[in-house]
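Consider the following input, taken from an annotated entry for 4Fe-4S binding protein (Adhaeribacter soli).
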Amino acid sequence: MDFSEKTAWFSKKAALPLVLTWAGLLMALLPLFLKSYFISVLSATGFGLFTLGSIWYIYLKFRNTDSANLQHYVWFNQFSARRSAAWLLGIILTAFYIVLFWFPEYLTGLIRIFDPLSFLLRGRQADEWFLYGGLYTLAILIMGVRALLKYQSSPYHKWRTVSIMFFQLVLAFILPNVLALFKEPEFYFSYFWPLKYDYLFPVSFENLQKHPGGLTTFMLFWTVSLSFLATPILTYFFGKRWYCSWVCGCGGLAETAGDPFRQLSNKSRKAWQLEVAIIYPVLGFITLTTALLWLNSYYKGGILGSLSGGFAHTYGFFIGMIFSGVVGVGFYPLLGSRVWCRFGCPLAAYLGWLQKHFSRFRITTNGGQCISCGNCSTYCEMGIDVKWYAQQGKPIIRAACVGCGMCATVCPRGVLKLENKKPEGRYEPTSFIHAESLRIL
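Applying the prediction step yields:
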């Protein structure tokens, strides 16, 4: 069966699941415009049809994926090639985040659809954040099925995707809500400082101490130990991939729902310099803010007054909301799937610094077999020019690399390999060009 025959066969088989998907989506969104019990039931049914149709369509499209053409025709697709559909999707995603953050009253009808699930998990009505968590988790699960089928030839990607789906569903959605059901703090065990920046704020410690017991003591221990003890150890052995590609919800959305847009990341040197110029100051800002809050708490506000709190609110607004949400996800179809991870995430900066200087993780290359096809660089979501390293047979040791392994997966010659090796001699440049590249890391 040639390509045209395959296309005709797929178009015929995919017609029904596409109808279910779009019809389900339209039904699910009805509460935004109409409000009644009947509309709510219709909307809930719509979510079910949307999920069924999406997974059915994904199964038909990717069940027989050719591992040699994983990204076939990606630059001809309306959604994945910055065409009109991509701009429309970007506008819709951005508008959703703006409404969610600042005008949640317009989502009331949609929020009420999640009341049954909210009562089941946490014993009270849903709010805008439960709606967001539910939709976020649903996106990762549906697109996680897509990733499992698309990259079925790679055990690494299959296990990584299963890990992402598990941590998002269990630790980032179900468990925090179940804790709330039992009157415990709504705690997210898969997030920690500085990504979940307020977990090390004095007020967070005070709120946890209002719930005496072994569980809250464990939460305090978990927050501190994971931030300053477990993170350096795990990063030493596995690089930042242990978190950014296997655990993190932000990375999980990028690796699943954001996979069609990974090739859109800017690979230019200016983008690399901009990345370094932004991400480390963000880390410095939240570190300073945390320190100031603790200092002010120790002196009971006698030194800084409300100034340190102003730092926290400023960071939360510009970085926690606008950058990570509106830009970080809303701009997927235009700038790629890792804009937040690459340019703004303070935890990525922290992990990247550890990976650059101390980790055993690197991607090794075999320059003698490289045919300069450029697949590795094209599909690197972090904007790394992998081909430059591969052509010279140099190991890739970059602070930005999240160890997703996509470069190795799309390489037709097996030139690239993810490895953990001893860190000796990691930064000995062998040429002026290489030295300049390392200098701006």
